[in-house]
UniProtKB/TrEMBL annotation:
Major subcellular site: membrane
Regions that span the bilayer: 15-37
Subcellular location(s) of the protein: Cell membrane; Membrane
Name this protein carries in UniProt: Signal peptidase I
PROSITE patterns reported for this sequence: SPASE_I_2, SPASE_I_3
Length: 178
């Protein structure tokens, strides 16, 4: 009878160890997803031709804790500026002066080469020339004529940047670094 109790104790102890290991793995995975890397999905056409609706991305949430976003970065925005999570490209940094002329964007008086952009860049409701304020970014969608971005929403607070889109993981035939 003592052997039977010992066997039950052993099974119980092993079950508790397994449950603790599984709980720890789940906690680590959740922390990793919330603070380091996460998956994001493209939900509209504002970034076409670069990204299309339905594509899945890996978002780096860690890097911007140590450095500022850079011009050209594709960022995931989640803040008070929009009720939706947005994927846009950083065009202007704090202190930059942006202007829109003849369907193109000008940065600090110089035209910006944007081989990724589709369509004409129109001013929207933003008055140009526009100076990006401290703690803010100016973002645009690559599909300029079909994007709700800083031209309509205004500048985006740097604190609203959730992370940088770094990889496309779906569809598999487009898998790779952005």
């Amino acid at each position: 009878m003592d052997e039977h109790l010992t066997g039950k104790s052993r099974v119980k102890r092993e079950l508790i160890e397994w449950l603790c290991s599984i709980a720890a793995a789940i906690a680590i995975a959740l922390l990793f997803q919330n603070y380091v890397y996460a998956q994001a999905e493209v939900h509209n056409i504002s970034m076409q031709k670069t990204l299309v609706e339905g594509e899945r991305l890996i978002e780096d949430k860690w890097s911007y804790r140590f450095r500022m976003p850079e011009r050209g970065d594709i960022v995931v925005i989640h803040g008070p500026e929009s009720p939706l999570r947005l994927v846009k490209r950083v065009i202007g940094l704090p202190g930059d002066i942006l202007d829109v002329k003849d369907g193109s964007i000008y940065l600090n008086g110089q035209p910006v080469s944007e081989p990724y952009a589709v369509g004409s860049t129109l001013p929207g409701v933003t008055r140009f020339p526009y100076t990006v304020g401290s703690g803010q970014l100016f973002v645009l969608g690559d599909n300029r004529e079909h994007s709700v971005d800083s031209r309509a929403l205004g500048p985006i607070a740097i604190s609203s940047i959730e992370g940088k889109a770094v990889y496309r993981i779906w569809p598999l035939n487009k898998f790779g670094q952005l």
